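Summary of Year 1 activities. Much of the first year was spent building the evaluation harness for sequence design. The harness presents a backbone, in tokenized form, and records the residue chosen at every position. We chose the following record to illustrate the format because it has been used consistently in internal testing since the harness was completed.
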């Protein structure tokens, strides 16, 4: 479902601003879906996906994307995070692995998930990593290279789809419109009113003192304080499209969405609180008919990944 030998966009560096032009370039790929991408902001971009996919690059402006051995065999790798000088990945069959160098050996860890799926991982880049997954499973650790301890989010048997840290608060979202917050992933999680009713909340991002959540039927909401009111916004997506993730960097937001196996939707904004007037649709240059799934900013570049080995890059303000 996601792969490495895909596509990327090259650009010269520009000023801070919305990434406008996304240009395809070839990279390592094999017809798989690329589910997530992350950066350590100094050396590597690392992406992950279906069939144990893992790949690294030192610059998205080059063709030098290299396949790595994740140790997941043919299991999906859904989540990836970097923090406190350590990388962590998670996926199917409750697998979690860590590495200090993504180009080197990844070591399997005890996830606390049993055989359940790990859908997302986040780090506060200081004290904790938190992993969230299906049927209400969650775990956390102060050391990604050690044992992960199972936690209770209050979701019951509802799936978690995204976990994010920002402004000293952890937020987890998922099925049935559920959203919960905590000051520590090892502590008490409190369910909040998300304003999504029973609609799945698929992705979430934090930046510029704002939390942005998106999900099925094109729904989107924002909150400056995730423990309080979430206000519904107009995303520009149709009711048949998903917002798979929302990411922040260099003063702009990037919305990753579309219809699974059908089409992509890419949009950018400097202020998601202004609704559809704040989102501008962009051309992803994805060529394989799949959705945009995730984006990350680093080294003065945005990198966008999606289904069927698609991968693009852009420079802010160009």
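For this record, the design step produced the sequence shown next.
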């Amino acid at each position: 479902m996601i792969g490495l030998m895909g596509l990327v966009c090259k650009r010269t560096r520009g000023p801070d601003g919305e990434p406008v032009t996304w240009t395809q370039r070839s990279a390592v790929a094999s017809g798989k879906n690329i589910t997530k991408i992350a950066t350590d902001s100094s050396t590597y971009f690392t992406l992950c996906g279906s069939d144990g996919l893992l790949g690294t690059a030192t610059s998205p402006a080059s063709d030098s994307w290299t396949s790595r051995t994740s140790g997941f065999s043919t299991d999906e790798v859904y989540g990836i995070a970097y923090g406190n000088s350590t990388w962590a990945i998670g996926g199917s069959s409750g697998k979690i692995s860590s590495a200090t160098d993504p180009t080197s050996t990844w070591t399997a860890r005890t996830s606390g998930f049993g055989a359940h799926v790990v859908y997302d991982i986040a780090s506060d880049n200081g004290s904790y990593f938190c992993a969230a997954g299906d049927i209400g499973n969650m775990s956390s650790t102060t050391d990604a290279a050690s044992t992960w301890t199972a936690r209770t989010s209050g979701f019951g048997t509802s799936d978690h789809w995204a976990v994010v840290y920002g402004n000293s608060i952890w937020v987890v979202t998922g099925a049935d419109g559920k959203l919960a917050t905590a000051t520590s992933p090892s502590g008490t999680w409190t369910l909040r009113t998300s304003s999504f009713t029973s609609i799945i909340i698929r992705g979430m991002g934090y930046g510029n003192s704002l939390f942005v959540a998106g999900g099925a039927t094109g729904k989107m909401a924002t909150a400056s304080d995730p423990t309080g009111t979430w206000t519904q916004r107009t995303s520009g997506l149709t009711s048949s499209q998903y917002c798979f993730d929302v990411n922040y960097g260099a003063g702009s937001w990037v919305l990753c969405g579309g219809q699974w196996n059908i089409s992509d939707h890419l949009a950018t904004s400097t202020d998601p609180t202004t609704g559809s007037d704040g989102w501008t649709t962009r051309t992803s240059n994805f060529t394989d008919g799949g959705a945009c799934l995730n984006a990350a900013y680093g080294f003065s570049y945005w990198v966008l990944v999606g289904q069927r080995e698609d991968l693009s890059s852009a420079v802010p303000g160009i």
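The radius of gyration is 18 Å. Quantitative recovery figures across the full test set are reported in Table 2.
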